[in-house]
Amino acid sequence: MRILFITATRLGDAVLSTGLLAALLHRYPDARFTIACGPVAAGLFQNLPGLERVLVMTKRTHDRHWLDLWKSCVGQKWDMTVDLRGSATTVFLRSRKRLIMRGGRRPGLRLNHLGQLLRLSPPPSPTVWLSEADRATASRMLPAGSGPIIALGPTANWTGKIWPTDRYLPLWAELARQNPDARPAIFYGPGEQERALALPVLNALPDAIDAGGHFSLTEVAAMLARCRLYIGNDSGLMHLAAAAGTPTLGLFGPSRVSEYAPSGPYTAWVSAPGPEGEAPIAGLSVPVVAQAALTLLAETRP
Q: Is Glycosyltransferase found in the keyword set (predicted)?
């Protein structure tokens, strides 16, 4: 059985779709999967059981990337095509069954919309597939036995979602006061822009572990899984932390928590005061974030 699974360009949406993919894998354990996604999310699927190939969709003018995808898939007869992008691509492929998710934004959790495609309620939680090499990298970068590691994610894909970086020093002071053996780890994505966003926090916390920039997505997920807590902006890293099973606190400002709250076994969120979708994240105070983080730590204490 061959399944084509077309998922998101953005990392966060791609992570959210992994629960649906895991449900398909459970339902069809012998299936061979082809994943179509954007370049940022491609590494997320490299350890997927039954993976046949990953088709990286690089955006082109006049939507020509969809034509590229069709050309890559038209020679195959598919048993199932799943399109989470709401495109017409799968209509022009030979497929015994098609599941097409309506495009565009609508109210409610994105995760629920994904679950409805397979009529799953509650929807399956996001997951991540790790290799032994990923775990070995994580063990080397974040060795056990030196106290709990608290992950901080100060970056996001647009500035409106970024909690002011000068708040992390007083936040850490409060967390360390009650957890003196804890150590921070700073997570961020590849590229100079991500590094520049994370650098003020790295400079403010010189003992922090630099856990960003040059790791694969599955290595990052394995490192996050070793952390006692993750605190960060609404971003792909936030969703990846939750999928890895790390207690995750999401920080929300102008993005909608009703759509993109972190989903996982141990998650919480705090939102800046004001109308949803319009509240400046700078309105989110250090005491509010610190209290929510300490509460989540206490609720998930081993």
A: yes
Which pLDDT score is estimated for 146? 74
CATH class of the domain whose range is 132-299? alpha beta
Maximum distance among all Cα pairs of the chain, rounded to whole angstroms: 61
User: Looking at residue 83, what is its pLDDT?
Assistant: 97
Strand order across the beta sheet in which 183-186 lies: 209-210, 183-186, 149-153, 229-233, 248-252, 267-271
CA quadruple 152, 156, 162, 164: dihedral positive or negative?
A: positive
pLDDT for 274 beyond 90: yes
CATH superfamily for 2-117 is: Glycogen Phosphorylase B; (3.40.50.2000)
Phi-psi region of 245 (alpha: psi -120 to 50; beta: other; left: phi over 0): left
Q: Residue 56: is its pLDDT beyond 90?
A: yes
**Dihedral through CA 93, CA 111, CA 187, CA 286, nearest 10?**
150
Please tell me whether residue 153 adopts helix, strand or coil conformation. Answer: strand
- pLDDT, residue 103, reads 76
